[in-house]
Amino acid sequence: MATGASTEIDRRSKQRTCLEVHTAFIRGVGANRIYAGQMAVLGRSSVGPIIQQMWNQEKDHLKKFSELMVAYRVRPTVLLPFWNVAGFVLGAGSALLGKKGAMACTVAVEESISEHYNNQIRTLVEEDPEIYKELLQVIKQFRDDEREHHDIGIEHDAEATPAYSVLKTAIQLGCKAAIFLSERI
Ligand SMILES: [Fe+2]
Predict the structure, then answer these.
(1) Residue 66 predicted with pLDDT over 70
(2) What is the CA(163)–ligand 1 centre distance, in A?
(3) What span, in angstroms and rounded, lies between the C-alpha atoms of 105 and 164?
(4) What's the per-residue H, E or C state across 15-76?
(5) Which CATH number fits domain 2-182: 1.10.3470, 1.10.10, 1.10.1660, 1.20.1260?
(6) What pLDDT shows up at residue 19?
(7) What are the pLDDT digits (tens) for 4-49?
């Protein structure tokens, strides 16, 4: 009986881990493509080095989640090519609005990502902080990086973008919809 119960816990925690790793992975792909799009437009401008620095951290996050995808044999969503294109378009599009536009996009996206990380942390802690100890450590550290990116965006006048709150809401709704679909397809 005890073995059966622990097998069930193993199965469920593995399922949970796969789910959270997958979401984090697709989110990471999106973020990377956004920064790639911004760099294509603003790479040589004064904010180029700042965007590059945030992108580098994003690359580290994605690397970690890619490794976990392999370790847990998670198959990525069929919408991955969509994330590649949509992320780049969003990044480049926001950068075409100028430096502040790019930073407004960063603030919107990073706020969503941080919230999403916080939801993951809550779920994992509620289920079993011991079982998910390692994953929690990774997620918490990356969440802090994303908070920093958010703050960098604010420091660089994101809020001074024309129609800032409309833009921010639109981007956040788009991100939510894309993640919702990717978790299911
Ligand atoms: Fe970020």
Answers:
(1) yes
(2) 22
(3) 9
(4) HHHHHHHHHHHHHHHHHHHHHHHHHHHHCCCCCHHHHHHHHHHHHHHHHHHHHHHHHCCCCC
(5) 1.20.1260
(6) 93
(7) 777 887 888 999 999 999 999 999 999 999 999 999 999 999 999 9
CA of 145 to the centre of ligand 1 (A): 7
CA distance 67 to 111: 25
Percent of the chain at pLDDT exceeding 90: 77
pTM to 2 decimals?
A: 0.90
Structure tokens at 18: 């796969």
- Residue 22 assigned to a binding site: no
End-to-end CA distance of the chain: 36
d(CA 95, CA 90): 8
Judge whether 146 is annotated as a binding position: yes
Cα of 122 to ligand 1 centre, how many Å? Answer: 20
> How many CB atoms are closer than 10 A to CB 175?
23
